Amino acid sequence: MKLNFADFVSKFPPVSMPVTLGEDTHHLFSTENPPLPEALISTYIQPTEAAVADDAFTEYVPCFAIDNTKEFIALVWWKAELMNYEYVLATFNIRGELIDREVIAYTRIEDGKVHRAVATINGEFELDIALGTSYGSEDLLDPSTSRTLHLEILASGEIA
To answer: What's the whole-model pTM score?
Structure first.
């Protein structure tokens, strides 16, 4: 059976904003939503990513569809790799063609440092992202590495 874009979108429950995505938010999504099947990943997710092949331990969990979008479909999924966890926001047109894609929250462990980003999406489709780094087993972010980004999903579906 061939899966289509409607099958892909149906894996993402619609959610009204605001939503905050942080380091532990994936637990809620992974208990409610099963991982995406390989056929949907290879058709709708991997073409949007770099040409690096996933290993057998990489998993994609659908999180939600942003409710009340008009000209585009906005989906968020969680990608789990070894030492790298990301929330990805992707927008598609109604034909299933990618408009834009952005990693909006993450936890990445590299060289004894833990890099984190936490994102909040509000009802106007604006994203506030707080980024920072901690060292070793420390949970506290180093203030000198902390910063914020502000993005928004435009009416065209572009993320800017």
So the answer is: 0.90
